TrEMBL record:
Keywords: Cell outer membrane, Ion transport, Lipoprotein, Membrane, Palmitate, Polysaccharide transport, Porin, Signal, Sugar transport, Transmembrane, Transmembrane beta strand, Transport. This is Sugar transporter. GO terms for molecular function: polysaccharide transmembrane transporter activity; porin activity. Residues 158-236, 243-324 form the SLBB domain. Residues 59-152 form the Polysaccharide export protein N-terminal domain. The lineage of its organism: Bacteria, Pseudomonadati, Pseudomonadota, Betaproteobacteria, Burkholderiales. One of its GO terms (biological process) is monoatomic ion transport. It comes from Massilia forsythiae. Pfam families: Poly_export, SLBB_2. It is found in: Cell outer membrane. Belongs to the BexD/CtrA/VexA family.
């Protein structure tokens, strides 16, 4: 059941109201922000950021392997009659004009090419060097010491998709240059100013990884070692998706954008002008956080010694709500003004008369 938080009557503080009646889940408990809680939160964040990225890091990437759809250029020296003259229709030319299309040998859906004298050769999954050696062995039955040159002329079998806050989102073909995360982002034109470098999502099959570029650099991990695989989907999230909402008794309630995934409670209060000196209760600074499991409510008593240091160490998360409660006197004044409009002003005016 949804839970709403309200300030009721003259009561001071954050209170919850169940919308589903008596059968609704109880209001979440309030957790005091202490050094121990901050340490636990930091460890949870560290565990989340230390998710298994080992399988993504490839220090020495293997050479490109030929796949179905690739176009191979093959030359048998001193035997021009064996040159491939088949025109491959261009994927960008609707008419399929042969004059504008590359010439070569296309790897079919079974991973094979057909070459004069050698017949059908299965080259899928082989490197250029391995495919050249295979073709040389076949041609050696008919030619004396054949000298073969084989290379991939058009890379069309493997792709990754880049989406989100990049200059040119879309498909990127994997070629002989290793397709690292940094390489893919650069091919997409680089990150936009609105990109959140702390929230880059990588989807590979049923698995999903969250990559924080800044944290990788801080840990001494080269982001250039993050190797993409065919079919990977990379999405760069926007900073606008990582906002924190500050409301209640602050000078300027507003929605704040996180700085590459980082914003502390102290920074959020500071960017909102601070706690209102007239109506804000420094003892009751709340952070409401919705998690997949439950709703959590944190409370900071800003009057306690060391509270500013704890506020600076308390890391907020996207969609957090920072709420500063009103003082009991401010609540009483507002309730009285609702019941007897202008009564307090009249009383003050009468008291000040000579």
């Amino acid at each position: 059941m949804p839970i709403l938080f309200v300030v009721a009557g003259c009561a001071s503080g954050l209170q919850f109201r169940d919308e589903g009646g008596s059968n609704a889940d109880p209001a979440p408990p309030t957790e005091l922000i202490t050094e121990r809680l901050i340490s636990n939160e930091r460890q949870e964040h560290l565990d989340l950021s230390n998710q298994n990225l080992e399988k993504l890091l490839v220090p020495n990437p293997p050479p490109y392997k030929i796949g179905g759809g690739d176009v191979l250029a093959i030359v048998v020296w001193d035997h021009p009659e064996l040159a491939g003259n088949m025109a491959i229709p261009s994927s960008t030319d609707p008419a399929g004009a042969a004059s504008a299309a590359p010439q070569g040998f296309v790897v079919d859906h079974l991973g094979r090419i057909q070459f004069p004298l050698a017949g059908l050769l299965t080259v899928e999954g082989l490197t250029e060097e391995q495919a050249r050696a295979l073709l040389t062995t076949r041609l050696a039955k008919y030619l004396a010491r054949p000298n073969v040159t084989l290379r991939v002329q058009a890379y069309r079998s493997k792709r990754v998709y880049i989406d989100g806050e990049v200059k040119s989102p879309g498909l990127q073909a994997i070629n002989d240059i290793p397709m690292t995360l940094v390489e893919a982002l650069n091919r997409a034109g680089g990150l936009l100013p609105t990109a959140d470098q702390s929230r880059i999502a990588l989807e590979r099959g049923q698995e999903r990884y969250r990559i924080n570029l800044r944290e990788l650099v801080q840990k001494g991990v080269n982001p250039g070692l993050v190797m993409l695989a065919p079919g990977d989907v990379v999405r760069v999230h926007s900073r606008d998706e990582s906002k924190v909402f500050v409301s209640g008794e602050v000078i300027t309630p507003k929605a704040l954008t996180m700085h590459d995934g980082r914003l502390t409670l102290n920074e959020a209060l500071g960017e909102s002008g601070g706690i209102s000196p007239l109506s804000g209760d420094a003892r009751q600074v709340y952070v409401v956080r919705k998690t997949p499991e439950r709703t959590r409510v944190f409370q900071l008593d800003a009057r306690v010694a060391g509270s500013l240091a704890m506020a600076e160490s308390f890391e907020l998360q996207p969609k957090d709500i920072v709420y500063v409660a009103a003082t009991p006197l401010a609540n009483w004044n507002r309730q009285l003004s609702l019941l007897i409009p202008g009564a307090l002003t009249s009383a003050v005016t009468a008291t000040n008369r000579p």
